[in-house]
Amino acid sequence: MYTVYALKSLKDNNLYIGCTSNINKRLSEHNNGRVKSTRNRKPLKLIFKEGYVDKYEAFKKERYYKTAKGKKELKNKITNHCGIV
Fold first, then answer.
1. Fold of 2-82
2. What are phi and psi of 51, to 5 degrees?
3. What is the pTM of this model?
4. Which regions of the chain are under pLDDT 50?
């Protein structure tokens, strides 16, 4: 099982989008400063996740969410489900 996820930086309010096979371990890595791209943006909060059985579909969706069109769609999903962003 693979998870596409979005983290919100509580420091600068920006989103980080990623993909992993172990969401709990990855979230811990982000918040413990072991991920270069989010090291200076801690703390981070998990605000969205989607599960995929197929690894390639998950990474394809991650890449899509990083595009302008995909980021807009992701923000709409987050707002509709959580009221956050």
1. GIY-YIG endonuclease (3.40.1440)
2. -95, 145
3. 0.91
4. none
